[in-house]
Amino acid sequence: MELFVSPECRGLWDDVSCWPHAVEGEVVSVPCPTFLQTTGRVYKNCTESGWSESYPPHEIACDYGFNGSFSIETAVSPRYFLYVRIMYSVGYAASLVSLVVAVTILCLFRRLHCTRNLVHIQLFLSFILRSTLIFVRDLLLFTSQDHFHCGVYPMSCKIATALSNYSIMANYSWLLAEGHYLYSLVSVSLFSRRRHLGWYIALGWGAPAVVLVAWCGSRCYFEDEGCWETRRVEWIWWILRAPVLLFIIVNLSFFLCIMRILVAKLRTQDMPGNEFNHYRKLAKSSFLLVSLFGLHYILFAFVPDKVNNTSVEIWNFIELAFASTQGFVVAILYCFLNGEVKSEMRRRWGRWRLMQGLQGQRQRGSMSQSGGATTNVSLLQRGPTTPPPSLEK
């Protein structure tokens, strides 16, 4: 027994209005877009071959062709979002490439395998996760935005938002691990530095996971709207804000204590000059990162909701430009400008050149030896053809 299913027209977004599902022969009408501030309606027929053309046309039904209801902002917005997307895509691509290179360098060279560099690698991985999620989101979720315009938000976009928030919290938690490890280097620590690594992993990856679970549960029960990017219920966003602010404050206190200890040890001459300079450079780079990231988070996490469109566009452009290049800055400060990494690279480069030189000398030596053997053989072969002078007399 066959079930008869009447043909239907699937929901459609025509770049102006959202059309719901309809069956063949049904006439559907939708109001004009709200931003046009008109009371007209547009109609479509669901036919055997699909949706018909809209009638009357939008410019007539909604009266925007005569009174200029379409503002310049509507035509400029797509170009603005295109430029913004190109800008942050370039920034995240530069961060991703530099971070992958940095992780590869720290993993390949065994002389660089220490707890400090292992903590650096975890920080790099958190930024790699963040950059990767941006490209996955753009590739899978935003290639077609029809469902977003029609008020349908799939679970995949909510998961992408949640993972992006997780990666941001992981950035700050691993910066906190960096600060604590540097503090343990310059202060008297009762614990093994190797033993600290397990606690750092629990802090860097585990603490953000706990916070994220609490945030997702709150979103599901109290503000399950859109792709979870709205901020209607303010206290839900504080579930994410509070831990990050706590990480920033604790880290700043760590670095202030580090500088105080370094200055005290230098005055008492308990620390050699080279060792002091080494710790001072580490503290300077770490303090710079935390200051920049903390300032960035505090500025952009508390953006007022009620501002004009131009301010929002400028604010978003600056925020995305800063956020997309953070991974690149981290890779520069913690790897490419790292004295140990540079000395190891120079050592490997000098060793490679030495090996190339020795290999070239061996090749030239073997060629000269083979050439000498050939000359001797030829001389031996030509020798008997000419009798010695004493025998001719």
UniProtKB/TrEMBL annotation:
GO terms for cellular component: plasma membrane. The keyword Glycoprotein applies. Signal peptide: none annotated. It comes from the Eukaryota. SUPFAM superfamilies: Family A G protein-coupled receptor-like, Hormone receptor domain. The chain crosses the membrane at residues 86-109, 118-136, 172-190, 197-215, 235-262, 282-302, 314-337. One of its GO terms (molecular function) is secretin receptor activity. One of its GO terms (biological process) is adenylate cyclase-modulating G protein-coupled receptor signaling pathway. Keywords: Cell membrane, G-protein coupled receptor, Glycoprotein, Membrane, Receptor, Transducer, Transmembrane, Transmembrane helix. PROSITE patterns: G_PROTEIN_RECEP_F2_1, G_PROTEIN_RECEP_F2_2, G_PROTEIN_RECEP_F2_3, G_PROTEIN_RECEP_F2_4. Its main location: membrane. InterPro entries: GPCR_2 (IPR050332), GPCR_2-like_7TM (IPR017981), GPCR_2_extracell_dom_sf (IPR036445), GPCR_2_extracellular_dom (IPR001879), GPCR_2_secretin-like (IPR000832), GPCR_2_secretin-like_CS (IPR017983), Secretin_7TM (IPR047037). Pfam families: 7tm_2, HRM. Gene3D superfamilies: GPCR, family 2, extracellular hormone receptor domain (4.10.1240.10), Rhodopsin 7-helix transmembrane proteins (1.20.1070.10). Residues 360-372 have a biased composition (Low complexity). Residues 9-66, 84-338 form the G-protein coupled receptors family 2 profile domain. The keyword Membrane applies. Residues 360-393 are annotated as: Disordered. Belongs to the G-protein coupled receptor 2 family. PANTHER family: PDF RECEPTOR-LIKE PROTEIN-RELATED (PTHR45620), SECRETIN RECEPTOR (PTHR45620:SF13). This is Secretin receptor. It comes from Gadus morhua. The gene is sctr.
